Amino acid sequence: MPDSLSRRQVLRGSGLAVATTLLSNFPAGASSVPVLGEYDVVIVGSGASGMTAALTAAKRGLSCVVVEKAPTFGGSAARSGAGIWIPNNPVVLAAGVPDTYAKGAQYLAAVVGNGSSPARQKAFLDNGPAMISFVLANSPLRFRFMDGYSDYYPELPGGMPNGRSIEPDMFDGNLLGAELAHLNPSYLAVPAGLVVFSSEYKWLNLAAVNGKGLAVSAGCLARGTAAAAAGQKPLTMGQALAAGLRAGLLAANVPVWLNTPLVDLNIEGDRVTGVVVSSNGVPGLVRARRGVIIGSGGFEHNAEMRVRYQRQPITTYWSVGAKENTGDGIQAGIRAGADLGLMDDSWWGPAIPLPDEPYFCLAERTLPGSILINQAGQRFVNEAAPYSDVVHVMYDKNPSAPDIPAWLITDQNYRNRYLFRDVLPALGLPDAWYQSGQVFNAWSIEDLAAKINVPAAALRTTVNRFNGFAFSGVDSDFGRGRSAYDHYYTDPAVIPNSCLAPLWEAPFYAFKIVPGDLGTKGGLVTDARARVLRPDGSVIPGLWAAGNASAAVMGRSYAGAGSTIGPAMTFGYVAGNDVAGVA
């Protein structure tokens, strides 16, 4: 407890130093800052949680403004694949998925356990389907079932091997007009001329060796051609989600102020009554008659906070979250007396720290013919496990069995068959990857081991043992292929286990693997109504939070594709409705 108090005191002090600097031109403090406007609700952040909250409050008849730090809107959601995990939602039910509220509750309880309160889990289950119906009714967004994208633990009670995640359907960017220019770019751009959905990437990976993969690729091209002929600007995944929500806000006359970072919360008595922001480098006050909703994202790009709260080694560079996510809303909440939860955790995933940006590995570590090894040259995890679990194992075992960095080992047969990031099968990898020291190749396992400084004999033994598993179809060490989820990003032509293929064809490749993330998952502790709580459990009047600025309802786990965005939008919806009930 003394360490926790010390962290808060230091962080509170550092945040106040920033606020004091920006307010230095106004000796009397926030009371002397010019008032930029007054609204019923101020929403901080224009990601999925913030825009859903703003749309909800606006449709409840409240005047709203969204203040956004970045020069773009959409945050990390715009960069993402935009899977949305919500049990029993109307989109999956319309697609004939046999989901029920009871199944969702059973599964969520099994996955999350005591990682979050039962009341918050119930609030998510109760409000998630209603949120999707609300967004469908109040924005041009449409959604599609991610057919076959398994829950991450489908063998648990209530789990669904065929999945229950949804994603945005294609959205025509023309509907945004000039505002489209302010959309935050995607993490990986869709190839020009194609219209690709998140659920189709697994098949694009296999286009060189699989008939369905080739057919899906042709379908993506046909969609792109049709959209171009119709004069559309087709958007999918996170681009569609952010654009669709922004279109809803435009129709609801909700302004989004870009380049307007949060400096601090304005508090009168014990109540949050607005925010101090920086506009053109000058502080200004935006009053909130009902309250403030923080949807400003996590702290993945705040080096000081990551060192303070999270396990080592850690760096901001390994994250693919929006670069503006530096914990501003969380720090403002701390200064207001908020409690914190899950600050040591993130939405983890193995990443390759490439020279241009980190690459978050999904299919690459799962496709047959690849293994993950530690610095002793040994496997240490089921490579096909949910990506968050893989990084948890990395941290749990490091440094006593050093695996940060780890290495993804593949061979030429693997490279001849599968897409790797955006490099087509059989094509050479970019020179810059090798020059950066993140990727190596060699004509023998022993020479590869020397290049990455692992024991050659140990790596040879590991590869030989794994090859035996590939021929038998049974991974006796880590059970790769036991779960239906393990087989999502695999090659159905590989038998007897689509997760396992031998490494045999030179040259061999090694890719450096570090603990990457989609964003942090710790933040302000909230209740089932998304109200921010103090350490004693009391409510901070006038303050709500959702998304990665709040401690995740998923606890330390990850139920399925979209376990970040689904709860973020749901608790944004909850917050927007709750603030509408404040007198």
UniProtKB/TrEMBL annotation:
What's a Pfam family this protein contains? FAD_binding_2
Please indicate if the UniProt record lists ATP-binding as a keyword.
no
The protein's matches in PANTHER family, at most eight in alphabetical order, are given as: 3-OXOSTEROID 1-DEHYDROGENASE, FUMARATE REDUCTASE
> What is this protein's record name?
3-oxosteroid 1-dehydrogenase
Q: Which GO terms describe its molecular function?
A: 3-oxosteroid 1-dehydrogenase activity
Recorded superkingdom? Bacteria
| Annotated keywords | FAD, Flavoprotein, Oxidoreductase
Q: Give the protein's cofactors.
A: FAD
Transport as UniProt keyword: no
Q: Which residues cross the membrane?
A: none
Q: Tell me what gene encodes this.
A: kstD
* Annotated ranges, domain FAD-dependent oxidoreductase 2 FAD-binding: 40-565
Q: Which organism is it from?
A: Kutzneria chonburiensis
| InterPro entries the record matches | FAD-dep_OxRdtase_2_FAD-bd, FAD-oxidoreductase_2, FAD/NAD-bd_sf, Succ_DH/fumarate_Rdtase_cat_sf, TAT_signal
Q: What class of enzyme is it?
A: oxidoreductase
Name the Enzyme Commission number(s) assigned to this protein: 1.3.99.4
